[in-house]
Amino acid sequence: MPAFEAAFADGALWIETDVQPTADDALVLLHDDDVDRTTDGTGAIRALTAADAAMLDTGSWFGDEFVGTRIPLLTELLAEITGDRRLLLEIKGEHTRDQLALLLDLIERSGTGARVLLQSFELSVLRTLRTLRPRDPFGLLVEVLDADPVATCHALGATAYNPDVTALLRRPAVVAELHAAGIATTPWTADAPDQWAALTALGVDGIITNRPAELVAWQTARRVEQADRPRT
After folding, report:
1. Per-residue pLDDT tens for 26-65?
2. Given its phi and psi angles, is residue 114 left (phi above 0), alpha (psi -120 to 50 degrees) or beta?
């Protein structure tokens, strides 16, 4: 939660995180399949109960001031998605239909539905989402670009196509192809100014980064530079 608050404080319009279930189907925010790297515990998150997960320290490895930080529940973050705040939420790994229905129900009951965009690498997850909420937008995450990204999105019903930044920059024309079909694209994970410049020139809809403060500062400086540029 401190990372999310810092991103918003630094001027990010959106935050991105991953959600997955515990052994008792509590929905928690964790990137890795296990808790070994980022907590003082061990084991797969899906093998732990919500009570087990709540006892783990996720902050001490990062700095003394974060000792005692816990793995957040999805409901904790949804409570903070107010006003102009937006959430790009990756459904991590395979989920059952019941788990996806629970996820959608939590989002609906939180009142954040219009401010949350779901995405996943898992085609089966996206197909189930479409049957559960056929009118809701969602995004497809990919590491390797499809031969025809537009056709892939149309087949799934995806409204966003979010690829690895390196893969996208190897085929930059894909951005225009997606936009012509009404499909948004927000590549991941771009942490360097040269990548930001290239993606901005292509007209991407968003940039997923580990460096939100630096990206916002870069964007601000770019706007100032453009405003000061003489017009002929």
Report:
1. 999 999 999 999 999 999 999 999 999 999 999 999 999 9
2. alpha
Report the alpha-carbon distance of residue 22 to residue 144 in Å, rounded.
29
Q: Per the domain annotation, does 206 fall within a domain?
A: yes
| The total number of structural domains that make up the chain | 1
List the CATH number of the domain containing 152. 3.20.20.190
Cα atoms found within 13 Å of the Cα of residue 190, Cβ hemisphere only: 26
**Which parts of the chain are beta strand (E)?**
14-21, 27-29, 86-91, 116-120, 138-142, 160-163
Strands 160-163 and 116-120 turn out to be: unpaired
Query: Can you list the alpha helix ranges (DSSP code H) found in 10-141?
Result: 50-54, 74-78, 97-110, 123-132
**Residues with Cβ < 8 Å from 134, sequence gap 6 or more?**
157
Residue ranges of the alpha helices (H) in 83-164?
97-110, 123-132, 149-156
Report the share of the chain in percent with pLDDT over 70. Answer: 100
Judge whether 183 lies within some domain: yes
- Domain annotation covers residue 195: yes
> How confident is the model at residue 228, as a pLDDT?
79
CA 45 to chain centre: 19
What is the spatial distance between Cα 33 and Cα 36, in angstroms, rounded to a whole number?
A: 9
143-152 mean pLDDT: 98
Q: Is residue 9 part of a domain?
A: no
- Domain with 194, as residue range(s), is 140-226
pTM here?
A: 0.96
